[in-house]
Specification:
This protein is α+β, with helices and mostly antiparallel strands. It has a single domain, classed as SH3 type barrels, CATH 2.30.30. The chain is 14% helix and 28% strand. The chain has 3 helices and 7 strands. The chain has a 5-stranded antiparallel β-sheet with strand order 4-3-2-1-5, with no helix packed on it. The longest helix is centred in the middle third of the chain and has 7 residues. It starts with 13 loop residues before the first helix and ends in a 5-residue tail after the last strand.
Length: 119
């Protein structure tokens, strides 16, 4: 994952939004681990370290496809997930995470509305 020197939470590059299957504020379901969360940032490709990829990304998802930063429902952490491991949550629902109110302006029944995108 990129550090703060590269981006701030909530920023999505124009390339990421064109090619990404999911959007900031969308509620998603992790296909392998079963949790639900909300997308709060998107990288157009893997932006972590080689060590992180080797240790954590055991299924070796593609590095050149979008990766998502997701606030996990009912947890205090976020995850970094390859696109192929996610699907839209059906039905979308509100999630419980301490950062939701800092990043989003509310849930409209379909998705969370981002407070603002930072360039």
């Amino acid at each position: 994952m990129r550090g703060a020197r590269h981006r701030r939470m909530g920023y999505t590059s124009p390339m990421a939004t064109r090619e990404a299957k999911f959007r900031i504020g969308q509620v998603v379901h992790h296909l392998r681990f079963g949790y639900v969360g909300v997308v709060f940032d998107i990288d157009p490709g893997f932006a972590g370290t080689e060590d992180w990829y080797e240790q954590v990304a055991r299924s070796r998802p593609p590095r050149d496809k979008p990766w998502y930063h997701v606030l996990v429902d009912g947890a205090a952490h976020a995850t970094y997930v390859a696109e192929r491991h996610l699907e839209a949550a059906e039905p979308p629902r509100e999630i419980a995470h301490e950062l939701v109110d800092h990043l989003f302006g509310g849930f409209d029944g379909e998705r969370y509305r981002p407070l603002r995108l930072v360039n």
